[in-house]
Structure formats: structure tokens, C-alpha cells
Amino acid sequence: MSDTDPQATAVSRRGLMLVLSSPSGAGKSTISRAILDTDPLLTMSVSATTRAPRPGEVDGEDYYFIDVARYHEMVAASEFLEHAQVFDNFYGTPRAPVEAALADGRDVLFDVDWQGTQQIAENAREDLVRIFILPPSQAELERRLFARAQDSEEVVRKRMAKAADEMSHYAEYDYIVVNDELDTSIAQVRAILTAERLKRDRQVGLRDFVGELCAER
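The structure assignment produced for this chain is given below.
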């Protein structure tokens, strides 16, 4: 695949923010990896965190590692698109790198829950495309969680209980993908991304381009 946006040959394009949300086990992470691995115009958002780096983590690639004082400064200055406290640590998505990517015609993928999505929508609705991934059934979701063999039965039960609350927010999203067959779901997300990239409002300089086309004889 070319790493050049085909639309760039005619007009430039403003990037978009693609949010994928789902209950744990519905396939969001697998779909995200598949899209990222094959689309050079799409990058993963990098969050800031106050937790200490883990072995092998690189500042600016895995996370932006900041202290608590800096985190609160950024919150006060509205420098996050979304932010939250998770246990004893703080996390947030810095606005500046995302806006720079969008202005450069690159798209940014977010792996956030419905609460984070609500915050992003409040801060940057026009650039946002929201997709919610649903499992085909409760039974299949439970089967997938157990098949991962990552969690105890108690943890799986807690995830299942939380899933109902998460799925109740489906109406806040622009698109719904029921992940029954993985390859089909990946293709559907790619189709959504392609369609959103071609929206008229994302085409920068389109009016002048069409004007020139109409003036040609």
C-alpha cells in the first residue's frame, strides 16, 4: 500500500480522530492492530501518565511520562482531549500532538472507553469518528474472555458485569460493528475510515479545486 493519501493528488485533507470502544473481549484491540498494521496514514494516540515507566517503555512512544504537578497544570490549561484517574495514577491524551497530526492530514486512533469518548466529543467533535464494537452475543463474549486465559473466573465475571453498562452507551457512537467474524469486522472498520476520509468537509481547498475544474475549457 502506498503511504501517500490518494486524495492528496488533488486536494489536501484534514485528518480525523478514530475512536474504537468496546467491552473487554469484543475484539477492539485485535481490530485496531489489524488497521494500524496496514494503514500508514493512521497512528495510535500516545497518552500522558504519571505512573513510572515500565522496563522497555520509551517516553514519547509508549507514553509521555510526566509528574503529578505537570498533569494538573495540563488539566487546568485544557491541554488534554480527555483525562482520568485510574487507581493511583493519572492519564490523559495531550491535545497538541493530535492537532498537529490532523493538520498534517494524518489520522489518529484512540482506544478509549465511553467516558473518554464523551470528553473527546466535547473538545473536538468535528474531527471525531466514533465506532463501537459489539460481540455477537453475551455467551460468545464470555467464551472469548475465558479463551484468552488471562483472567480468573472471578475477573471474567466482573468484566461481564461491566460489559452491560459499557454496551448501554452504544447510541453515543456514529457506527456500530458487531464482531461476529473478525475479517468482516476489520473490513467494515476500514470501509468506515475510507468513507470518513472522503467527506467533503475534510477536503481542504476543495472549493478552489472545483472552481478551477469548472473554469477549464
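Interim note for the steering committee: The radius of gyration is 19 Å. The mean pLDDT is 92.
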